[in-house]
């Protein structure tokens, strides 16, 4: 039995948080990007920020994994985001997606998904688009 074809509509959201400096440092260690602005409060203040702040690529990775969990990681054809606001330690981030377009081909369903990561304040931290090409044999 195959799963239903993707249809326009909202995906179930994912909530993460509160973010911690440890989350930032773990990502920095894995990525090799040890910019002190993300873990050294004195350095961040000297740069004009009230404290350290999140590594945006970390949340972009969570957002990519979130949407891929819904439509299949092998089916990703494009993923792009823009950074819109800083996320801080203590923030809770809600990852969400909405399938905004569906095109049927002879062998696939092509889905365009509007994705975003929103702070608990309602401010959008990241926003972008993902495109998936779901084969008819891999309907979720």
CATH topology: Thiol Ester Dehydrase, Chain A
CATH superfamily membership: Hotdog Thioesterase
Span between N and C termini? Answer: 11 Å
Mean pLDDT over the residues: 93
Number of strands: 6
Name the CATH class.
Alpha Beta
Low-confidence stretches: none
Query: What share of the residues lie within helices?
Result: 10-25%
Number of helices: 3
Q: SSE string, helix = H, strand = E?
A: EEHHHEEEE
| CATH architecture level-2 label | Roll
Give the domain tally.
1
- Kindly name the structural category: alpha+beta
Largest sheet report: 6 strands, antiparallel
User: Taking Cα atoms only, what radius of gyration do you get, to the nearest Å?
Assistant: 17 Å
Which range does the strand content fall in? 35-45%
Can you offer a commentary on this structure?
This protein has 140 residues and is of the alpha+beta class. It has one domain (9-138): Thiol Ester Dehydrase, Chain A. Helices cover 24% and strands 35% of the residues. The protein has three helices and six strands; from the N terminus they run ββαααββββ. It has helices at residues 21-31, 41-46, 56-71; strands spanning 9-10, 14-16, 76-83, 93-104, 108-119, 124-135. Strands 1, 2, 3, 4, 5 and 6 form a six-stranded antiparallel β-sheet that branches. A hairpin with a 3-residue loop joins strand 4 (93-104) and strand 5. The longest helix is centred in the middle third of the chain and has 16 residues, at 56-71.
